[in-house]
């Protein structure tokens, strides 16, 4: 039986990453071990399997758009730095920002403006904040943390975001719908067996309305965001992050004593001939172009389609295509401005594209390998399904939200994909409510309160797990955007988000047993219990760290 072996590739990857500190080597070992196990230790089978999955990536329509977006955005960052846009922005902002705490708070607040898409928020905020955080000797690992905690955790709380279509689709597949037709039996496969869910409509409710009702139960997002503001405002510093901050303050090195991860792009040093529009024009163009492109690809009626604003977001708009074209438009605007002001010539344009590729190619390689690794785990080894299958069928209904949260964290940690984890865990956990409760379905939403915290547990776990995973998109994007070393970002961030994970677990335990009239009130009370737990742990760690270090 190969069952237990499907857990081996993600374990090998994590162990190798933390021992070797080489993320690309670690992912390659993960891919090789997953392919060997997937091919049942056949050499020719392993080669064939790798060829199939590599081909699948290259023919994916999103392949060109994902990496095109990364490289053009890198070119835009290089251009803004060269023309002095970043310098102009820094000159204005730093008149109001007098210390590191205000700068860190500004980073958290500015992220709220871009919360409709986590990729856009993550990559744009790095470009915005690097010149400011560098001035106050804030280490790049701290900047990566500030960016990471406000991107994906924030986007899932917004009813109009690029995650909406994915969440609603998975809810509908899992049995939450207003439809009347029966679902096909859902079969979860894993090496050596299958796990079957045969179900009709489980909960007769609108998926969007259900998602809105579940927002107060996405405990991890609320707790993590509030904790981040607490850490910044109270100047909390402990663990590996404290070491990074100490080195930055004493030596000026923002990389934990290492050489810069990427070749540092020289900033425009002269205050003359520096215009704020060199910064704002491309950045604002990027944001608005991305929003319009997302709505356009979703079929928004004001842009030639037939759908309402909400329907255009719910119809799985082509996110990567939209971001690619938005970055091209923004880069073009930046180039035109620079040409008009004679800061560069047409012959310099290829140079900035080359700089963008040079800036982003290490992250592009990691993303490519991570997607390949996750695809093999999901489609061939069924690692996530196997992990969930081991425990979920044997639990009590009251403990379901907590156990689902823990299992989802593990699945997301192993696969490195939030969306992939949602697709795995929703079809497993929601039908299980029916089995554990023993009710005849379909039922109305108000009759099955435990559904809302369970939905919150899946979304929360998918966010928490990827923020612990060294190969996930959020970690890769935030470390790239900030210029931090990827494993340094994971190690420093881990000690700040573990209290939020523990606090969320406490909230989900409370949600399983505490029943108060009104699900929203119940969610808020349970969230406050978890938040108090998280803040207490952070405060205690901050007080104990200096004492433990002395010993």
Brief overview:
The chain is an all-alpha fold and 551 residues long. It is 69% helix and 3% strand.
Low-pLDDT stretches: 180-185, 195-199, 267-271
Task: For the record, give the distance between the C-alpha atoms at the N and C termini, rounded to a whole number.
Answer: 48 Å
Strand order of the largest sheet: 1-4-5
* Biggest beta sheet attributes: 3 strands, parallel
The percent range for strand residues is under 5%
Oligomer: single chain
What would the principal axes of the Cα set say about the shape? globular
| Class from secondary-structure proportions | mainly alpha
Average pLDDT for all residues: 82
- The SSE order reads HHHHHHHHHHEEEEHHHHHHHHHHEHHHH
Number of strands: 5
Query: Helical amount among residues, as a percent range?
Result: 55-70%
Count helical runs.
24
If you compute it from the alpha carbons, what radius of gyration comes out, rounded to the nearest whole angstrom? Answer: 24 Å
Characterization of the model:
The chain has 551 residues and is mostly helical. The chain is 69% helix and 3% strand. It has 24 helices and 5 strands. It has helices at residues 8-20, 23-38, 43-58, 61-83, 85-93, 100-111, 118-135, 140-148, 152-155, 164-173, 207-214, 219-233, 239-251, 277-297, 309-314, 319-340, 349-381, 383-391, 400-415, 418-437, 451-468, 473-482, 486-513, 519-550; strands spanning 176-177, 186-190, 193-197, 203-204, 443-444. The strands form 2 sheets. The protein has a 3-stranded parallel sheet. Strands 2-3 form a two-stranded antiparallel sheet. Helix 20 packs antiparallel against helix 21. The longest helix is centred in the middle third of the chain and has 33 residues, at 349-381. The radius of gyration is 24 Å and the shape is globular. It starts with 7 loop residues before the first helix and ends with a helix.
